[in-house]
Specification:
Mean pLDDT: 89
Number of domains: 2
Low-confidence stretches: none
Helix content: over 70%
Number of helices: 2
Structural class: mainly alpha
Number of strands: 2
Order of helices and strands: EEHH
Largest sheet: 2 strands, antiparallel
Strand order of the largest sheet: 1-2
Strand content: under 5%
Shape: elongated
């Protein structure tokens, strides 16, 4: 029997099994709080993903700009070469910083997954 099933005793009234509509009401009453909790969790996950997707969108847009077809430094004015080199150096520094942040986020995520997995195997989650 599934954890989401009703027992015969739960759907029997006055010695008779109630109709399907009544069984649905009984089922809904029994599992309503569990379903609402799961829905709240799902909503929180979806909202969190919306927040987490924004940085990835920004990174993709930045990469797209760096790969832009009109970004040809061979066409830069000789008076702007020093400035271009400074900007490229700043981009490189920012990229290294962002890469470090992403590595730290990956390590935190991996550790959190291990903790959740351990909690489940210990019967705590």
């Amino acid at each position: 029997m599934s954890r989401w099933s009703l027992t015969t005793a739960e759907i029997t009234r006055e010695g008779r099994v109630v109709d399907e509509r009544e069984q649905d009401k009984i089922w809904g009453g029994k599992f309503a709080s569990t379903i609402m909790r799961q829905m709240a969790k799902a909503k929180a996950i979806i909202n969190a993903q919306g927040v987490l997707e924004k940085p990835i969108d920004i990174l993709e847009a930045a990469l797209s700009k760096l790969r832009h077809k009109d970004l040809d430094l061979g066409n830069i004015s000789p008076f702007e070469i020093e400035k271009a080199m400074e900007i490229v150096q700043n981009i490189q520094g920012e990229a290294e910083s962002i890469f470090g942040q992403s590595r730290q986020a990956a390590l935190r995520n991996k550790a959190a997954c291990r903790r959740r997995s351990q909690a489940r195997s210990d019967g705590r989650g």
